[in-house]
């Protein structure tokens, strides 16, 4: 891994929820990246498909905009890294093999689905190369309780 995108200043700031840039020998650009959209599912049934669809839709319609919002001007990057990250939006629009997206969904452990990302290719119809689309389910025993505990830690740090 070469770069993890900087955190947002606010949870409802615009832009993708995560960016990971990988240095990969033997690839056309020597790097690849994944733009991530993260969702939560608090329903009782094991049907997070709506949340997952929303993530793919957001990446599909706003991915290039999100990548265009990134600024690396204040970072000291190696020349090859700077060149690569300077063209992320272009790579995304051109559907290059170096570009890909991912959706993660956090949910209660009682709502783990048997299928989650099997329709990704129907909701995100670009970037068809192998490995372009990734999915991640994060199951937490008590998602709401976890969120409340995190909120308490955040407020004590302010």
Describe this structure in words.
The structure is a single chain. 26% of the residues are buried. The protein is of the alpha/beta class and 158 residues long. A 5-stranded mixed β-sheet has the order 1-2-3-4-5. It starts with a strand and ends with a helix. It has one domain. The protein is built from 5 helices and 5 strands.
Largest sheet: 5 strands, mixed
What Rg is obtained from the alpha carbons, in whole angstroms?
17 Å
Structural class of the helix and strand makeup? alpha/beta
Note the overall shape.
Answer: globular
Beta-strand share of residues: 15-25%
Q: What helical percentage do the residues reach?
A: 25-40%
User: How many distinct helices?
Assistant: 5
The end-to-end span amounts to: 31 Å
Count the E strands. Answer: 5
Number of domains: 1
Short description:
It is built from five helices and five strands; from the N terminus they run βββαααβαβα. The protein has helices spanning 49-69, 79-85, 88-93, 120-123, 143-157; strands spanning 3-4, 18-23, 31-41, 99-108, 133-140.
């Amino acid at each position: 891994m070469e770069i993890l995108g900087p955190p947002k200043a606010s949870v409802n700031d615009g832009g993708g929820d995560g960016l990971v840039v990988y240095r990969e020998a033997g690839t056309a650009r020597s790097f690849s990246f994944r733009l991530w959209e993260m969702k939560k599912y608090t329903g009782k049934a094991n049907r997070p498909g709506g949340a997952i669809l929303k993530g793919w839709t957001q990446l599909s319609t706003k991915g290039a905009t999100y990548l265009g919002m990134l600024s690396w001007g204040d970072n000291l990057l190696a020349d090859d890294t700077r060149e690569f990250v300077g063209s992320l939006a272009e790579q995304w629009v051109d559907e290059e093999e170096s570009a890909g997206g991912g959706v993660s969904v956090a949910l209660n452990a009682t709502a783990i689905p048997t299928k989650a990302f099997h329709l990704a290719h129907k909701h995100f119809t670009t970037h068809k190369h192998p490995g372009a689309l990734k999915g991640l389910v994060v199951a937490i025993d008590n998602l709401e309780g976890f969120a409340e505990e995190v909120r308490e830690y955040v407020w004590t740090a302010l």
